[in-house]
Write a structure and sequence with these properties.
Residues 105-259 form the HD domain. This protein has 18 helices and no strands. It is mainly α. It folds into 3 domains: 70-245, Orthogonal Bundle (Hypothetical protein af1432); 247-389, no CATH class; 394-460, no CATH class.
Length: 470
């Protein structure tokens, strides 16, 4: 009798007793069983807390004979997307070609995914679902990072503005190529309901954005008007503006990752030393005030100062970095320890409130202690004070915004002449000027830093652009 899971020797053997040349041997395994599954492949691992509703796709797909789960397939679709690859040539804090060390949007996204995956798993979230959200979270960023985002928002008024997170949803559900409806319209990557919800960092429109403590409406939003159908589909049954558990994990992983890594990049590239904040009152005041103004509006300066002091008192705090291997190891240990510190605090606080059951979808919230929020904000404030707001960088930022504005203006005035084929088709199918303007914004947002510069030089300035290869 054959062992369990082992094909019978007679099943499809097609052999002869004489073992004639070319005949299949009786012991040759059948590679795929009745379900199309190799005998050595397990069934998809289904994390508790997710239903068939969560795994639904906007466009229904035939069942696949695979040992991968729906969320594993979501992750693979994002990982293989063109939008993710392009992040390798898009600015995180400094341009990708400035040095060989600093993060790009792609390496940042990979690090966010690693942090989010482990934190999410510890809380009971499906790790592949959180991974998908983390890999997706910056897909919508245009050339030149947040500076490019401001530039495109300024020139996109007639079609509803520009926001990187809304552009991410547009990419996932429309612009990336994977599945199409019967009428030829795009379903984008056709991710599951839970995956789209997890990638939605700001689940509201621009008009519905919540008010900030100063009474002004937040500029952050997660969906354009013409992407509302898919937004309403994956948000069906979700109350108000509530973020899913997986989206909250992604959001925190993003904050944790860039708070420590932007500081690491700045220190290693000699933009500043952490001892400056301790030794110079003016630098310290600038860091504390930048933290409040950028990340904790209305926050108490004394609490921010206390958070900075807590970080400085840590044994792993690297006050000075001289570029040696020993110093680089110490800096890497500092970033690792800080990530662990912040994640552990959130894990313990969340479990204290919601217990030890799997925490998924809309059944719980990530709890971050106020002290931890302040420490994360201080790390972000250090990088902002010494890098993003550095006076010598302001002319560069102005040139970047001018470049994108001029490129958008040129493309809007030349119809579909210079658009990539898929965007040219979108332009021709657009119903009105606002829709055509959105196509131009989609095209420019898709460019990397280097291609935006190349397009501007050749199309706007009429110069010959030469790529140098060695």
């Amino acid at each position: 009798m054959a062992e369990a899971g082992t094909p019978s020797s007679s099943a499809g053997a097609g052999t002869t007793s004489g073992g004639a040349p070319g005949a299949r041997r009786a012991s040759q395994p059948v590679l795929f069983g009745p379900e199309g599954r190799p005998p050595y492949a397990g069934r998809p691992a289904l994390t508790p807390g997710y239903s068939a509703w969560d795994r639904q796709r906007w466009l229904a797909e035939p069942p696949k004979n695979s040992y991968r789960s729906d969320f594993e397939r979501d992750r693979a679709r994002v990982l293989h997307s063109a939008a993710l690859r392009r992040l390798g040539a898009k600015t995180q804090v400094v341009a990708p070609d400035v040095d060989d060390f600093s993060r790009t949007r792609l390496t940042h996204s990979l690090e966010v995914a690693q942090v989010g995956r482990e934190l999410g798993r510890s809380l009971g979230c499906d790790p592949d679902l959180v991974d998908t959200a983390c890999l997706s979270h910056d897909l919508g960023h245009p050339p030149f990072g947040h500076n490019g985002e401001k530039a495109l928002d300024a020139v996109a008024a007639e079609c509803g503005g520009f926001e990187g997170n809304a552009q991410t949803l547009r990419l996932l559900a429309r612009l990336e190529q994977k599945k199409t409806f019967d009428d030829g319209s795009s379903a984008g990557l056709n991710l599951t309901r839970a995956a789209l919800d997890a990638a939605c960092k700001y689940p509201w429109t621009r008009e519905d954005a919540p008010l900030k403590p100063n009474g002004k409406r937040s500029k952050k939003f997660g969906v354009y008007a013409d992407d509302l159908p898919v937004f309403r589909w994956f948000r069906e049954g979700v109350p108000g503006m509530r973020k899913s558990m997986e989206a909250q994990v992604m959001d925190l992983a993003d904050d944790i990752s860039y708070s420590v890594h932007d500081v690491e990049d700045g220190v290693v590239n000699t933009a500043f030393q952490l001892r400056w904040v301790t030794e110079h009152a003016e630098h310290r005041r600038r860091v504390v005030e930048t933290t409040r103004d950028w990340y904790l509006p209305g926050g108490d300066l004394a609490e921010i100062e206390a958070a900075l002091a807590r970080l400085e008192s840590l044994d792993v705090w690297v006050a000075e970095m001289d570029g040696t291997r020993r110093a680089l190891a110490a800096m890497k240990d500092m970033t690792s320890q800080l990530i662990g510190r912040f994640c552990a605090a959130a894990f313990e606080a969340t479990r204290e409130v919601f217990g030890n059951e799997p925490l998924t979808r809309h059944g719980a919230d990530v709890v971050v202690p106020a002290e931890t929020e302040h420490e994360i904000a201080v790390m972000k404030g250090i990088a902002a004070a010494f890098v993003m707001t550095a006076e010598q960088r302001q002319p560069l930022y102005a040139r970047q915004r001018e470049l994108l504005a001029e490129l958008v203006d040129l493309l809007q005035s030349t119809g579909d002449r210079y658009l990539d084929p898929m965007f040219a088709a979108d332009w021709r199918e657009a119903d009105d000027d606002a829709a055509r303007a959105r196509v131009v914004i989609d095209q420019v947002a898709s460019l990397t830093d280097s291609t935006a510069i190349e397009w501007h030089r050749t199309l706007v300035r009429g110069e010959t652009f030469h790529r140098e290869w060695v």
